[in-house]
Design a protein that fits this description.
Layout: E1 2-4, E2 9-10, E3 23-27, H1 29-32, E4 36-40, E5 46-50, E6 61-64, E7 69-74, E8 77-84, H2 89-101, E9 107-109, E10 112-116, H3 122-129, E11 137-144
Parallel strand pairs: 1-5, 3-7
Antiparallel strand pairs: 2-6, 4-5, 6-7, 8-10, 8-11, 9-10
Length: about 160
């Protein structure tokens, strides 16, 4: 087993052609929040992670030792994307209020608000919650790597 106590770098911050030879460690967004974790890489390497309390793994982080280098890959998850049909401040405020009351982390991407869901049936719940503004927005379920906006430290319920 490889014991990991620190992060060596991040593939998105470093321009390194050797990154193609790295083992891959697929981790959910929820598990990325944990500082103590045990997983296996795509090649079967057993990895024990024990990070300092102020350190969190992120998509693209490189971990390992002299013998083995591993890239952390966040697993995709289901999200609802919400797009305003037209730029309307009132609708945007109501949208933020409704999502905020559900204590969901959000991401803002390409003029859309994204938030994670567990099941497709949650789309119906949000369609009902957004009933007053439903004609002013477009809702869609997507599967992607969800990277929450960093300005709000929200814990899902």
């Amino acid at each position: 087993m490889i014991n990991i106590n620190s992060i060596l770098g991040n593939i998105f911050k470093e321009n390194n052609s050797e990154n193609n030879n790295l083992e891959k460690l697929k981790i959910s967004r929820v598990d990325l929040e944990k500082r103590i974790l045990r997983k296996k890489t795509n090649l079967g390497t057993d990895v024990g992670i024990n990070l300092d309390s102020n350190t969190k793994l992120k998509h693209g982080d490189i971990i390992g030792n002299e013998e083995v280098k591993i890239i952390v890959e966040q697993i995709t998850e289901k999200v609802i994307s919400v797009k305003l049909k037209q730029n309307n401040e009132k609708i945007g405020i109501l949208l933020g209020h409704i999502i905020g009351n559900r204590h969901r982390p959000i991401a803002i991407k390409d003029k859309m608000i994204l938030f994670p869901i567990q099941e497709d049936s949650e789309l119906e719940i949000f369609q009902r919650l957004f009933k007053e503004i439903i004609d002013s927005i477009e809702l869609e379920i997507q599967e992607e790597i969800f990277l929450p906006h960093t300005s709000a430290d929200v814990h899902e319920h």
